Amino acid sequence: MRVTGYWRNISFLYRLAGWKCIHCGTFHHYKPVVCRRCRSREFTQVELPGSGRLIAYTVIRSPPKEFERYAPYSIGLIELEDGTKILSQLTDFKEDELRDGIRVEAVFRRVRVNGEQGIIEYGYKFRPVLSRS
Amino acid sequence: MVGVYVAGVGFTKIAEHWDKDLEQLMAEAAVKALEDAGVSTVNAIYVGCALSEYLQCQANLGALMAECTGLVGVPAFRSEAAEASGAAALYSGFCDIASGRSEAVLVIGGEKLSDGLPEEVSSGMLMMSGRSWYEGFMGADFYAISALLYRLYSKRYGDEGIPFFPVISHEHAEGVAHAQYPFKITLDRVLESPFIAEPLRMLEVSGIGDGAAALVLVSEGLARRLKSPKIKIFISSATDYMNPFDREDPLRLQSVMLSVSKVLEQAGVSRGEVNMVELHDSVSILGALCLESGGFSPPGAAGKLAMKGEFGLNGRLPCNTFGGLKARGHPFGATAIYPSRGDISPAYWACWEESA
Question: How far apart are the first and last CA of chain B?
Fold first, then answer.
């Protein structure tokens, strides 16, 4: 991905901010021209809740070229508190800690170093909710 | 609508063709198809390829293939629809004939994955399977998405029989001259292979191969005048939200459901009358989801039916009759153009095997 494409989408990648259709409620993580479900053109900007439940996860062991230096890494499917489902890298967990159904929360992290220029790209990742002891 | 017929078929073995460029593979398949049809020219050329810009630094495949097939002057275009690029070219060619504008068209699908390292092919697949700044940004590649679907499926239905789909495909590829992996594998070998993205194992995904396949499509009128054997074809296609988890039910492939229903309706055939099915089994779980979404298996039952032998060559509904994407091979843009066992006459087959 080009740095410009990353830059245009940082509101979602940094803050989980996107556009909700005011007619049917569908959330768009990209800036929509029309709603992908009802084709309405009216949206309100919202920030998704930063916590939810891990529905399922996997570990990538033979990654695409640009992710080789990060392997193995985990990808989770997360259902946020408002019901929106998003994909995220998982971080800050011990191996035996990941289980379907655990509570997870968003954190702001360095995701990768992009291209020959070595531009550092940040974004959200999710981690297990820290238990208060 | 004018009836559309396949009058000529050509394809290469799927392998790592170190000594051939993408254009040579595609030209070989195309010239065979033209010879098979017995036509010297066509009204248009449609090329399907997914990753030539990325792996070969090559675009403009339409004009390139017109030149390589000796048909300079003929209009020629390339279609891209990820792993369905070949199907997209076929769709365009079909519509050209069906509309009455063209009498004969050449459809070519090709892909040369061995020009890239495995991790570069994975990068290519990352480009194809989601948005570059979302799935691409976090590295949620095709295997990650498939693994998550696999998990959801296992939770809802159990995973019994899903790792058996590669076993079926390999059994059907045994001895097939154009297959990349023409040998049997056991279920134990599948289960013992390492995870590439758990629960997805190495032997549950297709390999990296090069190949090209081509068809000459003709109108009803021209079909009557040509001596070559002809098959009438119907085609349908549909889309869904890019990210499966944005769909109402990620385990129900709406695009498969819609396109299967539409094409059967066009052909006037019911599901019970279908004799064989080709599945997109680039990963095992997708083979099962295709069967279930296409209405050929109840939801959650495809794996169990597979274990019972229903999808074997002698079963109720033979699947992936030359080995599917898993064992015959999966050169993305060519995949949809390769024939199934039902598409080829015994005479053509004998001739092909001899030349191979």
Answer: 38
pLDDT in tens, B272-321: 999 999 999 999 999 999 999 999 999 999 999 999 999 999 999 999 99
* Chain A residues with CB-CB distance to B140 below 8 A: 75, 87
User: B335 to chain A, minimum CA–CA distance in Å?
Assistant: 22
B134, B147, B195 member nearest A29 (Cβ): B134
* Token pair recorded at residue A42: 């009216």
Q: What is the pLDDT of residues A56-65, one digit of tens each?
A: 999 999 899 9
Q: Mind giving me the DSSP string for B46-85?
A: EEE-SSHHHHT----HHHHHHHHTT-TTS-EEEE-BTBTH
Does pTM surpass 0.90?
yes
CB B117 to CB A65 under 8 A? yes
CB contact under 8 A, B141 and A63: yes
Two structure tokens written together for B65: 């293939």
Residue A133 distance to chain B (closest CA, Å): 32
Distance CA B105, CA B41 (A): 8
Q: How far is CA B65 from CA B27, B30, B113, B239, in A?
A: 7, 9, 18, 28
ipTM: 0.96
